[in-house]
Amino acid sequence: MSYAQLSLMEQLILTLSAMILLTSFLLLAQSRIISLINTFASQGFLLFLGTCLIAQSSGRYHLYISAGMTLALKVFFVPWLLRRLVRRLDIRRDVENVGGPSMIMIAGGALVLFSYYVALPIRELSDLATRNTIAISLAVILLGMLMMITRRKAVAQVVGFMSMENGLFFAAVVSTYGMPMVVELGIAFDVLVAAVLFGIFFFQIRAGIGSLDVDHLNRLHEVDR
Amino acid sequence: MNGWILAIVQTSLLLLCAPLLTGWVKWIKCKLQSRQGAPPWQPYRDLFKLFKKEVVLAESASPIFRVAPYIVFGVTVLAGSVVPMFAIGLPTAAIADVIVLVGFFALGRFFLALAGMDVGTAFGGMGSSREMTISSLAEPAMLMGVFTMAMTVHSTNLASMTRYLLEQPLQLYPSFVFSAMGLLLVAVAETGRIPIDNPATHLELTMVHEAMILEYTGRHLALMEWGAMLKLMIYGMLLGDIFFPWGIADSFAPLPLLIGFLSLFLKLFLLGLSLAIMETGLAKMRFFRVPQYLGLAFILCLLGMLSHVILEIN
């Protein structure tokens, strides 16, 4: 079946998935911590829209609950929590990267290609209209991982972790129309707890080493003295 | 025969309308910044005045400095004759495809940069060097965007691209969304609009395009200015043809031609409006941020290509 034969709704879902990939790239490129969090929130919003559309087009209405949880957690709660933390820790300065921005972008492009080749055999197993997006969601996961590797500051790494979780959720939605409700509730609760714990953890790191730059964790406190 | 006449009419209309578009953008910008503003037809007066004035040449100017305005203007007109304006299927469309069109622009830019360096003033050389830096980054992004669309429509010829898109029922291609965003960024950079270059600046240190033509006077300056206006209009038409092809005439009957002309008018009207709003809202970028901006354009076009391969091919 060629692309032109898909219905407009399915084309919209595919376009939204491509936009989610774009927000992953924007997360990689973003240099301000507040706009990083805003981009993360917009990724969550696109995910919410995509899930709603899939729920509508496939007629699986339980997906609306997952979509609602995405909206509440990833668009409002987690970004709000992170913004509050950034304000309280007073770290609105630039985010530092390991490696140049263009190198990271090229690495991101390579990761997308890699996940395309990895997902090629998987998509043969599925006959959903959204099966092509498995590669996209895999790429979102890998890009989140890349972001965790290339960022120095702990807050940015947490955003990378959360965007990885976005990718996992999206993979579940597009490949099998969502996980069982219990699993999804569990994951949503995990994200919630993780976000709160990270917040407490930030304060601990800063109290311990006086900065949120995790490179400082490589050094032994006693040796420096 | 009919087609050739129409092609000539179209190209002369392009020549006539280009100053109006520039004037319109300027006028809207002035209104948005609560200034009085010159009327939209002011560029015609400027061009007329410049054509009447005598040419003053620097002592060190070589023949290249004299021929450059004619080459730049001529190449831009040639490029403009290739881009479908209000009708497709004109015989001029066979002259060149999009890749050659990019080549035309590169040729014009080459002579513009040479002319900038020719007299030997510091500002001219600086402008040329900046222009070449920007274009060397913008061109790959533009070609990548063009190739992405060419893969969907199976052609690099502009007229057949537009025809293919018109004949299909409404489709939503993710790759087109990305290349539209990427090409928009490239078009802003190539036509020297605000986040990259300020066309209204009087500060030589920040000039790019204006610095190169700083030494020109009289009819030479008029041709250079007119060429820049044409370029803006050509990029506008290009974006309109590919991303909003509706309304363009596919036969030479009077009614479709009229509709084509009106839709073109509307598209350029809206384009000028959004350009003016964007220019008012944004500040000019630091020059060293430009590679980042064009890198984003390239990434967008690359993502368009990738999403075409991943999502649209089964």
Structure description:
The complex is a heterodimer of chains A (225) and B (314). Chain A has 225 residues and is mainly alpha-helical. Chain A has one domain (3-224). Chain A contains eight helices and no strands. Chain A is globular. Chain B is mainly α and 314 residues long. Helix content of chain B is 71%, strand content 0%. Chain B has eleven helices and no strands. Chain B has helices at 2-32, 42-52, 63-82, 98-118, 122-153, 158-167, 174-190, 209-212, 218-243, 254-281, 290-312. In chain B, helix 7 (174-190) packs antiparallel against helix 11 (290-312). Chain B is globular and about 60 Å long. The relative contact order of chain B is 0.16.
Annotation keywords:
heterodimer; A: about 220 residues; mainly alpha; about 0% strand; globular; B: about 325 residues; 11 helices
Shape of chain B: globular
Q: Residue ranges of chain B: pLDDT <50 for 5 or more in a row?
A: none
Overall pLDDT score of chain B: 91
Number of domains of chain A: 1
Strands of chain B, count: 0
Q: Most extensive chain contact?
A: A-B, 27 and 25 residues
Output the structural class of chain A: mainly alpha
Helicity level of chain A: over 70%
Roughly what fraction of the amino acids of chain A lie in strands?
Answer: under 5%
Annotation, overall tally of beta strands of chain A? 0
Residues in β-strands, percent of chain B: under 5%
